[in-house]
Amino acid sequence: MMGFNPQNPMIVQGDMSIFLETNNPLYTEVRDVLARFAELEKSPDYVHTYRITPLSLWNAASSGMKVDEICDALLKYSKYPVPEGVMVRVRDQASRYGQLKLVKKDGMLVLVGPDKPTMVQIQRFKQVKPLLKRQIDATSFEIDEENRGLLKQALIKVEFPVEDLAGYVDGAPLAVELREQRLAGKPFSLRSYQQDAAEIFYASGGVTGGSGVLVLPCGAGKTVIGIASMSKVKQKTLILTTNITALRQWRTEILDKTTLTPEEVGEYSGEVKEIRPVTVTTYQLLTFRKKKGDDFLHMEIFNAENWGLIIYDEVHMLPAPIFRSVANIQARRRLGLTATLVREDEMEEDVFSLIGPKKFDVPWKSLESQGWIARAECIEVRVPLPQAMRMEFATSDQRIQFRLASENPLKLTIIHRLIKKHSDDNILIIGQYLDQLDLLSREFNAPIITGKTPNKEREEIYAAFKKKTHKILIVSKVANFAIDLPDANVAIQVSGTFGSRQEEAQRLGRVLRPKGDGIENIAHFYSLTTKDTSEQEFANKRQRFLAEQGYSYKIEFEELTDADEKTAGQLWEDMKSRLLAPTNEDDEPAAVQPAATK
């Protein structure tokens, strides 16, 4: 046991968990340090729980954090003595990153280890041995080029993360320069953190750069960082996005901020099939097949051109079939962009081994303090279940209970109050269930965007919202990702996916972009939950991500009148038959869909 100070806010446990007191004066300082090498697990009001994991340590090591820095932080901020076993495990696990390296030697791809015992050990793993082509000497093996990704996947599973220093093949050259003025004539330049992120990824073109993930908040300009990276690589680029709206926003941004011409930037979608020096496509198209078991019809785009850079937007959404393609193209530079590395399917290790480790991470609160993103006020409004629904709720199974809580008709009363409170603001109402959103669209005479909304109509609605023709917009989960709504400053989440932290991050991100034209630089994020139900429990899980970023939820309990109860009871009679019937596919919560579509 070693190191402690009773005034400190941190308690380190022998199971690698850490308790952090939130009311301690050092809380903010310690939280920012912990975020570099530990994962937040629980975030109640007064004590947050973190856990040190192998992956969190490897990400810290790959981003340049030294083992001694981690150990020093544990000793510096601990309230009680740090268990010796924790220090031993931290040193052991953190030091594993980089023990094994992939390098190029005499034209061969070679796996190099620190010593003979380590190489003997890894040969004993049945998933690793078939990928070792030929032993060169006691500490190195020749590897087939096509097994580069598979080997990294296999080794990380046995806690031997590989540092890939084998470099990249050059793609076809492409002259990409950043503009000093945007197309509309406004000046354009990179923010300092955007410049830093692009430079860290590129690493002067050396083998230590060229693959990895950059983690930045929604609204921080991840697309601009991707474009800046293109201007450094200067080679043909393939960009993968979450949907066609995001695809077209990428294309617009590229033309607005670089010297590339419209003829050089192509759209590869269900509507247009252009392969050009810069080609933007979607995960949905690449994973399309006519029926289960068929080949993916568009995966050949990875080999269609001599790409020098492949950008994976919202990399935490990368579908499982794409991982198999990524494993085969490890010689191409790969950039992942995301606001959160959390994957609900727990495939973070695949992102680490195939796209690359976390290279850059800027805390949300840091950018907020500099004015680059809006200051966020997060409020959870807990609403009771109407008396008219209580018996039906009590006798229903868990799935129906979640649905009833999500579509609680008393939420409509709260939304009316919030819209009145924010009558001068631009409001997004975000939900999970289509019938619920249709009701809200009719109630507030507001346009609605769902997965069924044609792309042209979506773009028209987005444009009208930006021009303030509409001040309220209803959106389903399709708006979780890559939607540019810079003037939205209020989000009301009426229903959400079970415990998805990534969804909470993305939905908050819809209103975090900095405001302009005299609008106060503050965002309001309301999450409506039915109290004393599983919906409230799932909301607590989603809030973990926001707590990790430094946001705290204020919880409000609404006082409802007899008239409110009467109105809710009438709505319940209209909704009862639908809510108690089996849900249709369009209404399924994303959390029960296959992992690849989360």
The number of distinct β-strands equals: 23
CATH class label of the largest domain: Alpha Beta
Structural class: alpha/beta
Put simply, the count of helices is 22
Which strand order does the major sheet show? 12-13-11-14-15-10-16
Q: What is the arithmetic mean of pLDDT?
A: 86
Biggest sheet features: 7 strands, parallel
Provide the CATH architecture of the largest domain. 3-Layer(aba) Sandwich
Radius of gyration equals 25 Å
Q: Uncertain spans, ≥5 residues at pLDDT below 50?
A: 584-598
Tell me the CATH topology of the largest domain.
Answer: Rossmann fold
Distance between the termini: 43 Å
Please identify which CATH superfamily of the largest domain we are dealing with. P-loop containing nucleotide triphosphate hydrolases
Gross morphology: globular
How big a fraction of the residues is strand? 15-25%
Task: Walk me through the topology.
Layout: E1 10-12, E2 17-21, H1 27-34, E3 39-42, E4 47-51, H2 54-62, H3 67-77, H4 84-96, E5 100-105, E6 108-112, H5 116-123, E7 134-137, E8 140-143, H6 148-157, E9 162-164, H7 192-202, E10 211-215, H8 222-233, E11 237-241, H9 244-257, E12 265-267, E13 278-282, H10 283-286, H11 301-304, E14 309-312, H12 320-327, E15 333-338, H13 348-355, E16 358-361, H14 364-369, E17 375-383, H15 390-394, H16 398-406, H17 410-421, E18 427-430, H18 434-444, E19 448-449, H19 455-466, E20 472-475, E21 490-493, H20 501-509, E22 522-530, H21 534-548, E23 553-557, H22 562-580
Parallel strand pairs: 5-9, 10-15, 10-16, 11-13, 11-14, 12-13, 14-15, 17-22, 17-23, 18-20, 18-21, 19-20, 21-22
Antiparallel strand pairs: 1-2, 2-4, 3-4, 5-6, 6-8, 7-8
Helix pairs in contact: 2-4, 3-4, 6-13, 7-8, 20-21
